[in-house]
From TrEMBL:
CDD domains linked to this entry: AdoMet_MTases
A UniProt-annotated Pfam family: Methyltransf_11
Protein's name in the database: Class I SAM-dependent methyltransferase
Lineage: Bacteria, Bacillati, Actinomycetota, Actinomycetes, Kitasatosporales
Gene3D superfamilies from the UniProt entry: Vaccinia Virus protein VP39 (3.40.50.150)
Native source species: Kitasatospora paranensis
A Gene Ontology biological process term: methylation
C-alpha cells in the first residue's frame, strides 16, 4: 500500500512537472507549431497537460475545450492561458468519456497523449463522435517504431516506461489506432524526433478526417 501511495503521488504531482519541462525541449516547439497549423473554429484538445500548445494556436481558433485530468498540469498552464487571446476552458477530465454532444467540434488536437490514455481506442472513438462530419483530428504521437531493432527495445522497455511516466506506452501503432476508430488519414509523416532516443522518439504527425 505504501508503494502505491508513493507511485500515486509521483504520477499525480511529479510527472506533470517533469513533462512540463521535458516536452518543451529540443524540437518540440517546432513540431507543436507544425501540428497546430490549420486548426480553426471550436477545438477540443485531449491531454491538454500544462498548455504547451497554447502559444501555437492559430488566430482562426475561436475556443479550445481542454480535457485534462491532472490539477497540477492545469495549474502549470495558467501563465500560458493568461497570455493567449484564445478562450480556453477546462471542460473535461477523461478523454475516454467526453461529456459533450455529438458533432460539437470543428477540430480536435492530440499531442503526445495517446501513449498514456489507458484505452486509446475508446478515446479516439469519442473524439470522432464529438467532431462534426468532416472535422479534423490534428495529431503528433510517439509510438511503435518502423525499425525492428528499435521495436525490440521498445517492447523490452515498455513496462519500465509505464512505471516511470504514468502509464506511457512505447509500442502503440498510432496510424492503425486512428484508422481503426473510423478516421480517414489525410496526411501522415512518420520520423524519428531529433535529439530524442529512437525508442521514445518514433513520431507520427498528421491529420485525419471524421467521415
Amino acid at each position: 500500500m505504501a508503494l502505491e501511495v508513493v507511485m500515486g503521488y509521483y504520477g499525480d504531482r511529479v510527472v506533470p512537472r517533469i513533462l512540463n519541462v521535458a516536452c518543451a525541449m529540443g524540437e518540440a516547439g517546432t513540431l507543436r507549431r507544425r501540428v497546430c497549423d490549420g486548426l480553426e473554429g471550436v477545438v477540443i484538445e485531449i491531454g491538454f497537460g500544462s498548455g504547451l500548445n497554447v502559444p501555437f494556436y492559430p488566430a482562426a481558433v475561436t475556443r479550445v475545450d481542454a480535457v485534462e485530468p491532472n490539477d497540477v498540469g492545469w495549474g502549470l498552464a495558467q501563465k500560458r492561458l493568461n497570455e493567449t487571446p484564445v478562450e480556453v476552458r477546462r471542460a473535461g477530465l477523461d478523454g475516454q468519456r467526453l461529456p459533450f454532444a455529438d458533432d460539437t467540434y470543428d477540430c480536435a488536437l492530440s499531442t503526445w497523449t495517446l501513449c498514456t490514455i489507458p484505452d486509446a481506442d475508446a478515446a479516439l472513438r469519442e473524439i470522432r463522435r464529438v467532431l462534426k462530419p468532416g472535422g479534423r483530428l490534428f495529431f503528433i504521437e510517439h509510438g511503435l517504431a518502423p525499425d525492428e531493432k528499435v521495436r525490440h527495445w521498445q517492447h523490452r522497455m515498455d513496462p519500465l516506461q509505464q512505471r516511470l511516466f504514468a502509464g506511457c506506452h512505447l509500442t502503440r501503432p498510432i496510424a492503425d489506432l486512428i484508422t481503426g476508430a473510423g478516421f480517414v488519414l489525410a496526411d501522415v509523416d512518420s520520423f524519428y524526433e531529433k535529439g530524442a532516443p529512437r525508442m521514445m522518439g518514433a513520431d507520427t504527425l498528421g491529420t485525419a478526417v471524421a467521415p
